Amino acid sequence: MMDLGNPALRGLSNNTSWWSRNAGAFFLLAPLLIFLLIFYVVPFVHMIQESFRFSYIDTQTGDGLTLHQYIKTWSSSRIGRVMERTFRMSLLTVGITLLLSYPIALLLLKLKPRLRTIILLVIFISLASSLIVRNYGWVVVLADKGALNALILALGISDTPVRLMYSEIAIVIGLVHFSIPFMVLPIYGSLLRQPASLGEASQSLGGNAWQTFTKITLPLSLPGVFGGTVLTFALSMSAYVTPLMLGSPSSSMISQVAAEQLLTQLNFPFGAAIIVTLTVLTFIVVAAYATVLRRVFRADV
Question: What are the start-end ranges of the E strands in 177-261?
């Protein structure tokens, strides 16, 4: 009979019990982890390695590692302007998407099950539809002779068609449309987990609807807000198809500049440095955002 009082045997017993508790989860996650390792981690590591090399158009050459591509990235005024535009439009997209999506999530919580199912189905259908098809729809709506300009002229807001296509406005509209499902679903899931008794307790203590929302509903839904805003921000920062179809060279985003270097100029080290820089900056912004929510708003994110 084993002596469980022995520290070594006790440690072995704890390890065995941990494995028995988590073996199922490990095997379920294993295919996903393998997929991410092969198709994301390995290519990204290769891209990082490529970003520390000289390219064929550089005046300097060498076989060793170099920071030359990152120096070019940070010293380029064009990349600086495009990076600033990308951050600005991504943050604007996050703000507009949150303002539109939170009321939708609250509405889903209060609707009858059948109507709620219909709206959720519409949201999932929007996710399943092609991004290119949706962008072509916005091309039709935002064109000079499109539906939105026809409404503007009919209401007398302007005497001439407003230039909407091939602008930052069109890109933000397209990004908001694409991002709404990614914002609504996390917030709705967070609201759904809140016990209804909390709102009833607030009302019984004399709290009105606004106090209940600001003191209970909103703080407890911050994990869902965090998930939705992070997804929207990441998707907007890396957007390529939407700014390509709805924007112009003067409203290009950083992913288009990276694609230009990789696919047109065949300058793989410089394009890789741009992508790595974009990824690192995105992670820094998300980490700072999570820190603020934890320390200032005491959110569990």
Answer: none
What Cα–Cα distance (Å) separates residue 33 from each residue in 27, 38, 40, 46, 47? 10, 9, 10, 18, 20
CA neighbor of 220 nearest in space, from 253, 243, 251, 197: 197
Any idea what the Cα angle at residue 82 is, between residues 77 and 84, rounded to 5°? 95
Q: How far apart are CA 67 and CA 86, in angstroms?
A: 24
Q: Which is nearest to 177 in space by CA: 121, 91, 101?
A: 101
- Tokens 């060279």 locate to 249
**Which domains, and CATH codes, for the chain?**
78-295 (1.10.3720.10)
The terminus-to-terminus CA distance of the chain in angstroms comes to 46
- Mind listing the pLDDT tens digit for each residue in 71-86? 999 999 999 999 999 9
Q: What angle do CA 187, 229, 175 make, to 5 degrees?
A: 110
For residue 116, the surrounding DSSP H or E stretch is helix 113-128
CA atoms within 13 A on the CB side of 147: 5
Q: Which two tokens stand for residue 139?
A: 């091309």
Nearest in space to 77 (alpha carbons), one of 228, 237, 257, 288: 257
- Where does residue 165 fall: left (phi above 0), alpha (psi -120 to 50 degrees), or beta otherwise? beta
List pLDDT tens digits, range 146-180: 999 999 999 998 889 999 999 999 999 999 999 99
Give per-residue pLDDT as tens, 206-258: 888 888 898 889 999 999 999 999 999 999 999 999 999 999 999 999 999 99
